[in-house]
Amino acid sequence: MAATGHGPPGGPLAGVRVVELAGIGPGPFAAMLLADLGADVVRVDRPGGAGLAIDPAHDLTNRNKRSVLVDLKAEGGAGRVLDLVERADVLIEGYRPGVAERLGVGPEECRARNPRLVYGRMTGWGQEGPLAESAGHDISYIAVTGTLGMIGKAEEPPAVPANLLGDYAGGSLYLVIGVLAALQHARSPGGTGQVVDAAIVDGAAHLATMIHGMMAAGGWQDRRGANLLDGGCPFYGSYETADGRYMAVGALEQRFYDEFIRLLGIEGQVPARKDFTRWGQLRAAVAERFRSRTRDEWTAVFEGSDACVAPVLSLSEAPGHPHLLARGTFTRHGGITQPAPAPRFSATPGAVRRPPAQPGADTEEIARDWDVPGILDARANRPDPTAAGPKGLQR
């Protein structure tokens, strides 16, 4: 596994200061990405927790961060946050539209104190539109963008891809892209700060750009399980093995497909891959063959080949895969195995330097490092760091 780092930030974003207003889901993950890349991220936690019922010591999205505790609804709370904002490069918040403004830490107030601030806003529906004020979750956002409807078998309900596609791909990653682009602009000659409106519906729709192009060209049918990349193709999908596990097949190109059927042991026994009318027969033959051996046996057969076949591993199995071990794709820090920072940099590597921030635990350190003595006044409301917050979720 990858080695973990120690000491001050040293990634490509070293020296960048980020204020994160505590929330759940894509906002904290985006702030974690910035922290993994070396940014000094201060998470402003609130009394009672952010709403995610998990022990803060295991909330890996808060790794590499530091925490202060501020009650934004209390007298002087907004002022303490604005003192941090004055010294920051970026702020990230994930409230519903209008909430930050009502709390006194909206874009106008923050940029009055710091005109070069990049103000990153993370929501599901965006800052405007008929649904902007409505509650929602990952599945809601990917449903209306067409992305959920693409996933799964034709005769079954759409398959739910955890909350990876909406929250983290369509949300966090687009927020980080926007923040970094806006930061570049703010630091250029004559540049200023600005607001980045990152909506999960926008990002999730944008992820399907290639598919929309294929559909316009007649190369994609607007229904599940009928296309090259959605499980409709018998040589791009998953197959059960003798032990009830699965192998993933992605033998799209002809030369990869040829090696696939040769190693599978059905060469010369199945219809031509371009005979779409007999894809059902081809799928049945592939499925029957995979059921003849265990997952590990098939893994050994395809290991090192160009057949584009891989075992489907569980979350707990993945860190032990030989390739991921060799690359250090996972790391262990504070007794927790977790994905290592990504991507990688030749001159300014990132690292897991700190365990998940405990609410309010770093107040004195931040007051000193950021020269904001006023936040020390908020320590009286510091909660038990091991207590999980309420279950009410807000986006």
Walk me through this protein's architecture:
By secondary structure, the chain is of the alpha/beta class. 31% of the residues lie in helices and 13% in strands. It contains 13 helices and eleven strands. It has helices at residues 26-36, 77-85, 99-103, 107-113, 138-144, 164-187, 200-207, 209-216, 254-264, 279-290, 295-302, 322-327, 363-369, and strands at 17-21, 40-45, 65-69, 90-93, 118-123, 194-199, 236-240, 246-250, 309-311, 330-333, 336-339. A six-stranded parallel sheet has the order 3-2-1-4-5-6, sandwiched between helices. β7 and β8 form a beta hairpin. α5 (138-144) packs across α7 and α6 (164-187) crosses α7 (200-207). The chain is elongated.
Please summarize what this structure is.
The protein is α/β, with parallel strands linked by helices.
Q: Which outline best applies?
A: elongated
Largest sheet: 6 strands, parallel
Rg (C-alpha, Å): 24 Å
Strand content: 5-15%
Low-confidence stretches: 3-7, 380-395
Please work out how many helical segments DSSP would assign.
Answer: 13
Query: Helical proportion?
Result: 25-40%
How far apart the termini lie comes to 35 Å
Mean pLDDT score, rounded? 92
Order of secondary-structure elements: EHEEHEHHEHHEHHEEHHHEHEEH
Structural class: alpha/beta
* Widest β-sheet, arrangement of strands: 3-2-1-4-5-6
Beta strand count:
11
